[in-house]
Design brief:
This protein is 43% helix and 15% strand. By secondary structure, the chain is α/β, with parallel strands linked by helices.
Length: 341
C-alpha cells in the first residue's frame, strides 16, 4: 500500500506543479500583478483547463471556510487565495457576508469554476434559541418551530440573492422512536418545519446544489431529502483513527440512505491546537488526517461511493512553510490521480 501511495503521489506532483505556480502567497506589502497581467494568454488557458477539470467526472475536494471576519486579516480569509483546483467551498456564516466576499465569490465562480455554498447549521440555530429561552425562563410552549422558520426566512433567500451555487444543511435529527410521547411530539414538530422548508427550497431551486451534512441520515423522516441531496457529507473530522472513519461512513449508509454520494470530512492541522487534524492510521501511526482520509477515499469499494473529501478548518491550511494550502493540495493530488470507484 505504501509503494502504491508513493507512485500515485509522484505522478500527482508532476500534474499539479504548474497549478501551484499561479497561487503562491503574496508578499506582505507588495502588490504583485496577477498572473493574467503578465501571461494573459497562458493564464487564460490555464483557467479554462481548471474549469474543464471541475466540470468532468472526478472525486471532489470541498473546503469549509470560517467567513466571520468582517475584513480579511490575512490571505487565509480570502476566497481568491483558495487552491485553484478546490471544487467547492462552504461558507459557514451566510448572514455575515461582506461586499468584498461577494466580489471574490463571483470571481472564483466565473474564473475558476469554484462552487460556493453556504451552511445552514441546525444545531447552532437550536443553541441560539435555547440561549434566549434561558434568559426568558417561563415560556411553556415550544417556540422553536417559529424561531427556526423565521431564521430560514432570512437565510434561504440568500442563495438566489447573492448568487451562491447552493446550500449545505448540517442537520442531525433526533431519533424519535424511543422518546416519550410528549417529547416525541415536540421533536416531530421541529423536524417537520426543518424538513418541510428544505424540501420546498429544493423543489424551487432545481439548478442549485444541495449538500446534506448528516451522520445518521436514516433518522430523516422526509426521505425525498436524501434522494435529492447531491452529496451527503459525513462528519468524521473529530474521530481518532481511520478505522472509525470507515465505520462512521458505513453506518451513515444504513437503511434506505443512498450510498453513492458520500463526502468524508477531515480537519486541517492547527498551529494553536496540536491535537487538531491528526489521526491514527491502520498501523497505529499518528498521521495528518486530511492526507490519510484522502488515501482511504481512493481505496476501492463495492457497496459505497466515496465522492470526495471535505476539509474542515481549511483556513488553517493556508499557512505553510513552503507552500500555502499544502495539505489541501496533497489531498487533491491523491484523489484526482486514482480512478473513481
Amino acid at each position: 500500500m505504501k509503494i502504491f501511495r508513493n507512485i500515485i503521489f509522484a505522478m500527482a506532483a508532476v500534474s499539479l506543479a504548474s497549478c501551484s505556480d499561479w497561487t503562491k502567497p503574496e508578499s506582505v506589502g507588495i502588490n504583485s500583478p496577477a498572473p493574467g497581467d503578465r501571461y494573459q494568454e497562458e493564464y487564460g488557458q490555464y483557467l479554462e483547463n481548471i474549469r474543464a477539470y471541475k466540470a468532468g467526472d472526478h472525486r471532489l475536494a470541498i473546503g469549509w471556510l470560517d467567513n466571520s471576519a468582517s475584513v480579511p486579516g490575512s490571505q487565509a480569509d480570502r476566497l481568491s487565495a483558495l487552491p485553484d483546483s478546490l471544487d467547492a467551498v462552504v461558507l459557514m456564516y451566510p448572514e455575515m457576508l461582506d461586499e468584498w466576499e461577494i466580489r471574490e465569490m463571483h470571481q472564483v465562480q466565473s474564473d475558476k469554476g469554484t462552487r460556493v455554498l453556504y451552511q445552514i447549521d441546525y444545531a447552532s440555530v437550536l443553541a441560539g434559541y435555547e440561549a434566549e429561552q434561558d434568559a426568558e425562563s417561563g415560556q411553556q410552549a415550544d417556540g422553536f418551530p417559529a424561531y427556526l422558520s423565521s431564521y430560514l426566512d432570512r437565510v434561504l433567500p440568500l442563495c438566489a440573492e447573492y448568487g451562491f451555487d447552493g446550500i449545505s444543511l448540517w442537520y442531525e435529527p433526533e431519533d424519535v422512536s424511543h422518546l416519550p410521547e410528549a417529547d416525541k411530539a415536540v421533536e416531530e414538530a421541529r423536524q417537520t418545519v426543518m424538513e418541510g422548508r428544505i424540501s420546498e427550497w429544493i423543489a424551487a431551486s432545481p439548478d442549485k446544489i444541495f449538500m446534506l451534512e448528516c451522520n445518521e441520515p436514516k433518522h430523516i423522516a422526509d426521505k425525498s431529502i436524501l434522494d435529492n441531496a447531491d452529496y451527503i457529507a459525513v462528519h468524521t473530522e473529530e474521530l481518532e483513527n481511520i478505522l472509525s472513519v470507515e465505520l462512521e461512513v458505513r453506518s451513515a449508509a444504513a437503511g434506505d440512505v443512498p450510498s453513492d454520494r458520500f463526502i468524508v470530512t477531515a480537519s486541517a492541522t492547527s498551529s494553536s491546537d496540536p491535537a487538531l487534524g491528526w489521526i491514527m492510521d491502520s498501523e497505529g501511526n499518528k498521521v495528518e488526517a486530511v492526507t490519510e482520509t484522502a488515501w482511504w477515499i481512493v481505496e476501492p469499494e463495492t457497496d459505497i461511493v466515496k465522492a470526495g473529501i471535505g476539509i474542515c478548518n481549511i483556513r488553517n491550511d493556508y499557512f505553510g512553510s513552503t507552500l500555502n494550502y499544502a495539505l489541501t493540495r496533497k489531498a487533491i493530488s491523491i484523489i484526482s490521480n486514482t480512478s473513481n470507484n
